Amino acid sequence: SSLASFSPQPHSFDILRSRPTMGSNQSVPVKPELEEVKEIIIVGGGPVGLLGALASAKFVQVTVYERFSGHEPVEARSINLTLGRRGLKALETVVSPSCYRAIQELGQPVAGRQVHEAGKEPVFQRYGLDDTERLLSVPRAELHRLLMQEAQGHQNIKIYFSHKLCPERSWRDAEGNTELVFMREGETD
């Protein structure tokens, strides 16, 4: 299937003139050079890449290139991620209500951390002013799985696994901005 044949779904507002800011009902003007953007390529299908894909897919076709095959155990690369107020708001704005509930249910609220210095008593450091300001510690593998399910179920997102970025072949303009990205299929290291 060709990305050139993609036709965005109609929206209740003109996406070429203004776009709502994340988590807001207000619109911000779009830079003229972005008015014709019909497709976004995201290199990396981790939690941040998938969140970016889900947010962008409200307006344009998104293609995600991921280095791994999609079958590697994510927990082997990382343990938990902690999400603060802004991270949770971004998730709430972008993912479905059922996905957001699942993320909240698998997370553990944390109020601070215990710092151990050699020869001193451990010291508790709060993340906020009091116990009401907490972070949500979420298993990375489960967060990734939930975001991947959301992205794979979105009609405006295509994900290609086992593709590695080839920076030596990517083309840059005179200012050093990447204009064209080359990917190699089948290489994961």
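Next protein, fold it too.
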Amino acid sequence: GDELGDPWAARNSFSYGRGGERGAARPEVLRELLSTTDRIIQEVDSVEYGLTDIQEYYANTGALKRAAEVAQGGKAVGCSIVEAFGKDSKPRELEQVLRLEYRSKLLNPKWAEAMAAQGSGGAYEISQRMTAMVGWGATAGFSEDWAWDQAASTYTLDPAMSEKLRKANPQAFSNMLKRMLEAAGRGMWTPSEQVLSKLKSMYGEMDDLLEGVGKPPPKPRSRS
């Protein structure tokens, strides 16, 4: 997580305001603020793009949370999410919102089929959300096996779905496999040895294919 928290702190340590401050570096001021931060509040004002949809949330809110925890020697810093687009704007814990979003979007069979039906663009959207799941794991410690288990079974271990995504957007499909392997390698997910071996094999095949070394799997013969 420090690889995201540290760059966030470096980018946000500049001061603007009184006394002619026009972007002067004040890392010591930021460290002081982070060391006294108990809770972070993030407002979400779009029903279309939530925490799990785009990188800005984990790269900013998640990285801020991580930077504050590092500044406090590892002490947990809370994070509340306020969804301002609906009638119920009661703050909810970050983990609760992440679970809800993953169940309603990425891990929702209807959402998955709708994205796959969109071809290359849909595969890209799925791929981006896999990257975001790694981002939330790195910054906020969101590492729940059920989410990765279901993502793998839905998008990469299902033969029909994986073939559809591979054909639509090989780069995006390769990234899905890469992020799953990254999650396993970084302790965010504990897949079975069988699943891990399968993903490694698939990623190797995709890597060869994208490098022009391998060949796509043969198409099944149609029955006469």
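About the second fold: The mean pLDDT is 89.
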